[in-house]
Design a protein that fits this description.
Helix content: 25-40%
Number of domains: 1
CATH topology: Cathepsin B, Chain A
Radius of gyration: 16 Å
CATH architecture: Alpha-Beta Complex
Largest sheet: 7 strands, antiparallel
Length: 216
């Protein structure tokens, strides 16, 4: 199986590496794999907080995947975790709220069709600007019917944006022979598959995302 894939060291890679001159990436982002079908959201929260806090945020470690899932009110597969619960947890935790503002699709300005980003160019600009500030973006889409992962990289492959690539920290990295917790996907293709099928509430199904921004 490995012969169909190229292995890249996304933990250490930078735009100074040959062939990646137009790459925007948050390197040194630690990943791990979820232990149940429904705990992708709690894994994303742990990975996000551990990155932002240098790996030492309170008690949230890899072995807190299940306890944090309870705090997020995660339901058994195929229901999973509502985006509202993720946002509420981040907003109501005193230690997080003291240092970070929560930005999510729930309160983001939307167009007449209910989309945060009316076209791919708006999405691309949002992702790149967030990555430049070193802000990983938790997203959920129709993958597996509904799955959370984190955008940590965007590669502008050439002038044709149809070739652009997203790099994810993915706690369900089953798509290649190297289970390192990173996955890649065509950026424009993801944009048009950026919706939830059966996990999120009706008002959260379109372009669900959440990120933390440091307070000034």
């Amino acid at each position: 199986m490995a012969k169909y894939y190229n292995d890249y060291d996304f933990f250490n890679i930078t735009n100074e590496c040959e062939g990646f001159e137009n790459l925007y990436i948050i390197n040194h982002f630690e990943t791990f794999q979820q232990s149940t079908e429904e705990t992708c959201a709690s894994c994303c929260v742990i990975m996000l907080l551990n990155y932002l806090e240098g790996g030492g945020f309170r008690v949230y470690k890899k072995n807190d995947e299940i306890s944090l899932a309870k705090a997020l009110k995660t339901k058994k597969f195929p229901c999973g975790t509502n985006l509202e619960n993720v946002v509420d947890f981040l907003k109501n935790d005193k230690m997080i709220a003291k240092k970070y503002d929560v930005v999510s699709s729930l309160d983001y300005k939307k167009d007449d069709n209910g989309f945060c980003f009316s076209n791919f160019k708006e999405f691309k600009n949002f992702v790149i600007s967030s990555l430049k500030e070193k802000y990983p973006i938790i997203v959920e889409n129709v993958d597996y019917g509904g799955h959370y992962k984190i955008i940590i990289g965007y590669d502008c492959v050439n002038e044709n944006f149809e070739d652009d690539v997203l790099i994810f920290a993915d706690s369900a990295d089953f798509g290649d022979a190297n289970k390192d917790g990173y996955s890649i996907y065509p950026a424009e293709r993801f944009f048009f598959m950026w919706f939830d099928d059966h996990c999120l509430s009706a008002n959260a199904k379109k372009q669900p995302f959440v990120l933390l921004k440091r307070k000034n």
